[in-house]
Amino acid sequence: MRVPFVPAHVDTVPSRVVRSANGRNVGIYEYGDPNGSPVFALHGTPACGAGFDWTDTPARERRLRVIAPDRPGVGDSDPVVMASVADYAAELTALADALGIDRFAVIGYSGGAPYALAVASALGARVSLVEIVAGAGEIGAWATLKDLARSDRQLTWLSVHAPLAARFTMRVAEIGARLSPKTALKSTATEMNESDRAVLFALGPPRAALALFTQAMTHGTRGVVTDYALISRPWHVALDAITAPVHCWHGTADTLVPLSHTTALMERLPDATLTTWPGEGHLGLITHVADVLDDVAAHAI
Questions:
Q1: Helix runs in the chain, H state only
Q2: CATH, domain range 16-298
Q3: How far are the Cα atoms of 159, 169, 291 from residue 258, in angstroms, in the given order?
Q4: Where are the chain's structural domains?
Q5: 3-class SS at 132?
Q6: What is the pLDDT of residues 243-278, one digit of tens each?
Q7: DSSP 209
Q8: Residue 35 falls in which region: left (phi positive, over 0), alpha (psi -120 to 50) or beta
Q9: How many angstroms separate the first and last alpha carbons of the chain?
């Protein structure tokens, strides 16, 4: 199995806060070439933009500027009341405008996939390419709650039906990850296949590997819980309105989000291709980051 270059980690991954065009603070993490072609990388759940540091060197080599924003209420981003996933398009538009970015590619990983699709649907020609990697499907449309791994299934249900309990559960998990990161990482690995475990334990010290999780709750757990709830409700995203090409990538042995979520999504997209990674799991993006970024670079503007 190919293991990508992983930069030296620190306990806290640095970010910066941008004032978006609609007046909100948005925490962002930047990787690759600062002057390169822009691509927004949308994180999974529960996570934040700190989870893409392994894109830095391959993005720099391809002259790509990877911008990974924290979603509303997550990490350093201001909370925003959103009725559905579709509302996120306005938030990313405001961020792109504040950064002076007119046209860009977007990568939606896992729980970030619904938001990437929402952006592509709403922004039309501003989006040059959509990369959906291990994308979570729309619960109640072409996916079900029982498809998910046990912990995500439980947290999703709590986030919708008992948000206070979900916030307490996330807080306990965050404290555990900070106090005993090695134990927390081992617990995370129990729901993964062998391929994912190998990638996970190659990411560096446990505390640093868990930064994408712990930093998501820098200002509390409400944003992460809201994120879980939003992606489990109707997205209200017009998939047939997406004009940019969509490239889907998924490991065939993904134990967290099954391949069936992506194959069902493919049936609903007007212009999409699928690449599978045989025997690989949810962390296939890390192993195959060069392939995904090659595809982005081929469509760079």
A1: 56-61, 88-98, 113-123, 150-161, 163-179, 181-189, 194-200, 206-209, 211-214, 222-232, 259-266, 284-287, 289-298
A2: 3.40.50.1820
A3: 21, 24, 21
A4: 16-298
A5: strand
A6: 999 999 999 999 999 999 999 999 999 889 999 999
A7: H
A8: alpha
A9: 32
